[in-house]
Amino acid sequence: MLSINPVNVDGIQFNRNDFLGSGGFGSVYRGKYKGQSIAVKRIEKRVDSKQLVDKELNILKQLDHPNTVKLLHSGSNDDFVYFALELCDASLDQVFLNQDDPRKYKGPTLPNNFEVFSQLASGLKYIHSRNLIHRDIKPENILISVKPTDQGNDITMKWADFGLSREVSERGTFTMSGIKGTRLWFSPEVLALINGKNLIIEQTKGSIKSDIYAEGLVFGYILLKGSHIYGENDLEIVNNIRKNESVNMNQIHESHWARNLIEKMLSNTPDTRITSEEVDIKLQSIKKQLIKGEQNLHWLCIGPTSDFRKKIDTLIQLGIDLNAKNNDGWNALHFLCRYNSTPQLIDAIKILNELGIDLNAKNNDGWNALHLLCCNNSTPQLIDAIKVLIELGIDKNAKTNGGRNALPILCHLNSSPQLNEAITVLIELGIDLNAKNNDGWNALHFLCRYNSTPQLIDAIKVLNELGIDKNAKTNNGSSALHLLCCNNTSPKLIDAIKVLNELNIEKNAKDKYGWNALHLLCCNISSPQLIDAIKVLNELGIDLNAKFNNGENAFHLLCRYNSSSQLIDAIKVLIELGIDLNAKNNDGWNALHYLCRYNSTPQLIDAIKVLIELGIDLNAKNNDGWNALHYLGRYNSTPQLIDAIKVLIELGINLNAKNNDGWNALHLLCCNNSTPQLLDAIKVLIELGIDKSAKTNAIKVLIELGIDLNAKNNDGWNALHFLCRYNSTPQLIDSIKVLNELGIDKYVKTNNGWNALHLLCGYNSSPQLTDAIDFLIKLGIDKDAKTSFFLGWSAYDLSRSNKNITNHSKLNEIFKIL
Known about the structure:
InterPro entries: Ankyrin_rpt, Ankyrin_rpt-contain_sf, IRE1/2-like, Kinase-like_dom_sf, Prot_kinase_dom, Protein_kinase_ATP_BS, Ser/Thr_kinase_AS
Organism: Daphnia sinensis
Number of helices: 36
Protein name: Protein kinase domain-containing protein
GO molecular function: ATP binding; protein serine/threonine kinase activity; RNA endonuclease activity; unfolded protein binding
CATH superfamily of the domain at 91-274: Transferase(Phosphotransferase) domain 1
Structural class: alpha+beta
ANK repeats: 328-364, 365-401, 550-586, 587-623, 624-660
């Protein structure tokens, strides 16, 4: 309902019908300030209250701490003063109201008691450090702020309502002008004043220690779930505080971590009562004990014993939070369900539930206990444990951060003999059979992609019988058959393909990239089932020559990705079955191009031979004019490089073919190829006086086989130019020597007038740079030659502009040589 009384004072906006509450000094409304939701405290202007209002405003301006309510702005008009305060979700007293009370806090569960105590202690310590006393500490003045984050809700406790606060001396005392606060939360010394033991209040010194007492009462109130530590009704509470009879203290076990702390905070005399700083220090010490206790709780759940209940009770008496989580967000039930496979599992789940474990708590990844149980628990109790969790009220359809419920997790990760029965139980108990994760995967997808157990076939049948959408596709358009063929190494792969076909799954379906099941099989499967799987898919009628979006067929993918021992046989089988041997992709690549570009296995040589024997076009070029030898020279750095070059040339490849840029195989070899095996071996080889390296061997092989040593590309670059421009390996010097010995034109220039020395000085960052420069000059290259562009640059000019040379001493060395 829209308000008929909107208010806007200096940017503080609210409607009078958005009422939140009222106190002795004003009313609170929900409002806005600069677009932010706020709480607006409205205080009537009165002569007798002006000093108090100014004092509260001044105190609020001083406070800036996560555990105190923040003042955002203030304003006034003729009748009222307005405070714009950060908006919180509830006050502490609302947490303990009856469920049917409309004011009951129903937000996210508060942090554990230790965390709440720590936040409140930190806030009060800060207030006291500012030489301030609160003077009205009670549950109603502790607010709860809930801020959603990527990791969940950030819940913060905040001290609020500083209307009675005032400044104190450095010793934490002040001269009282009256008794302020709420009777049920008064300290004994304040109640003594009311009782008339000190009639002249103005002559009495107050102390911040009264805040400590009230905070101790609040701590007890929290532990007792809304009961006061000194009694059940107002009169009893006040009388028991005066008599120092904390009648409900016995409900906090003597060994509880907070018992001794609260007793020190509730000391009957201010002088023996601990300070806010000491409370904070004490809590930090307690924290170490709690961490150890929580770890013991989690370890106990991993392997519960016959006296599990007794040990749990002992930990609870110590104040260990049953719902405590580790850094990954795991609680005791998570550990129990993920790791426990003992006969005690079922009873332990029931015990934790009886004691108040948060059954639906999730870890940082959004997994609850049912997810973790289904993940990898292979206990014989798996089925009963699933039933118990669901009967106790766990959210069976809860999803992880990735969007999975328990069924896909079971199908993905569980290899228990009970898998099929567990699937059936989950579905019978009402889990969403066709639920998908954030990527659109359902349980059948996960089963076919990851399950390699003997249960695979029966599990597929069970899911189908129970009504799963067998033709459902993921967000990428993958079907269960695609995922089965993607990476399944199960001995049941062939049978699984047949079962899916019998279930009428669409065998020629393509994903959004155009891949069908055969593409994925040839791309990913390296198991002994590869050959039979190809045959089965063909028998079932898959489109053997189907191409995906880039124009690649299964044969291309096999030669590109498959490095298994089945590669040769798989090539032969596809050809026998009728796949197009010379098919090209959209960029003009055939299977031989893919093989020479990507294959680095010992099968490379035999695979080249088989393709050529079967009739592939040996000299086919792609759209950029590259043939198989170009790809081999540019990308292959394996021990097979030399033999592969020989095989291609012996079988008739055009040795001097150039690509569209005029590059031949020698250019590409000198430009980019680096054989890592030679890095350690080169020194030994040189010492032994044999061929210097596989790099130089490859160059020699090409030249011996007749490649045009002095061939140039379209920009006038020869092999020596490419070598000096791009090669920074230890083979640089020896490769220059080889080219020189074999007769390359070392003086030739590119179309821009660059010689080899220019390119070396302008771009090369090899550790051998200075030696290479020196060697070229000794060979007679013109060190003073200038390029054709601009005013003409010399080799030295180019070395100075070389961004790869950052060492000034290296430049000095070059200067001396040039």
